[in-house]
């Protein structure tokens, strides 16, 4: 996930206030998993289960010491690993020159063209010849922070976990009889940790017009949980800009043990590779299980991930791709979303959990006062069943206060 971090600086101290506000509301999103599913949207589950043993080997290789934090030579090795997997699955190269899209380095006076990084992509043609020019993208960034002051930033969760998801979704959809009716492209982005440069270059130089793209999916950090609260949730952002995607999420049954929590993307800003596509009004979904205490530290290593959870999120993404591909109607972009009561419900649930003596979070008297006020006001909103724009603005502000003083 994109965040500049000086070596030796903890993730908590690196936060800006605006970023901090977004991250608390990521945590708050967990409660939206308890919202009722519309009666007219029956749940659907498809294909076989994806197991921890499927995703774990990808993480263990990509976050191994030999890839040196996937920067420089390590990033090139990671890109080759992704390409080999695409070839093994029988996917076709996405770009005119093959599987790689070179990202040029900025030119300085007198310098010739250089290469700063490489996106790696492949595609699976749709099973319906009439829809092969219609695409879904499944993506994840494969780069990370490299080695700093002799410390390897392995990036197991950020973002070997997302790459593992992408590779296993590609494998699952390429199986005989599993191919969606529209085409699916798989893209491993480079340079996400450097201002999203890989996805920005791709969006500006796509292999086909972006009008052919019906849905962009990306995942970043999907192998742990956010904060100290034990919540089996994956946060899904972006559906507020395409109501049909919200219905898709309601219609897909998550794997047992996983909850889906929706959240508006504006509450966290631009945190990953959805940014360039959101800016072009491409319908998108962003998956994350949230930021942990080892985010952007050398302790983000493979043995600390929850592979059961990673496998469940991978299976969920696969099923959402299949569900969306089967929908004849494309998601339509909505520029200004309507405030969602789910956000008040989630913040109420998180405040309640924080006040629970068993939550593992020790609150000072001042912190307890702030959290209690938050719980009481959000309960009023939830009991009323509606939320105003002013109340949503308050939610954003109180989230910032809570994250800066509690988390």
Structural commentary:
By secondary structure, this protein is α/β, with parallel strands linked by helices. It has helices spanning 17-28, 52-62, 73-88, 156-173, 197-204, 243-251, 275-278, 307-326, 341-354, 365-384, 389-405; strands spanning 92-93, 100-104, 115-124, 135-141, 146-148, 151-153, 183-189, 213-219, 233-237, 259-263, 284-288. Strands 1, 2, 3, 4, 7, 8, 9, 10 and 11 form a nine-stranded mixed β-sheet that branches. α2 packs across α8 (307-326). 50% of the residues are buried. Residues 4-42 have low confidence and may be disordered.
Oligomer: single chain
Order of helices and strands: HHHEEEEEEHEHEEHEHEHHHH
- Taking all Cα atoms into account, the compactness measure Rg is 21 Å
Shape: globular
Q: Give the % helix.
A: 25-40%
Q: Approximately how much beta-strand content do the residues carry?
A: 5-15%
Strand-pairing-aware structural class = alpha/beta
In total, the number of strands is 11
Helix count, DSSP H or I runs of 4 or more residues: 11
Unreliable residue runs = 4-42
Q: Sheet with the most strands?
A: 9 strands, mixed
Give the rounded overall mean pLDDT.
Answer: 86
Query: Could you tell me how far the N terminus lies from the C terminus, measured between alpha carbons in angstroms?
Result: 19 Å
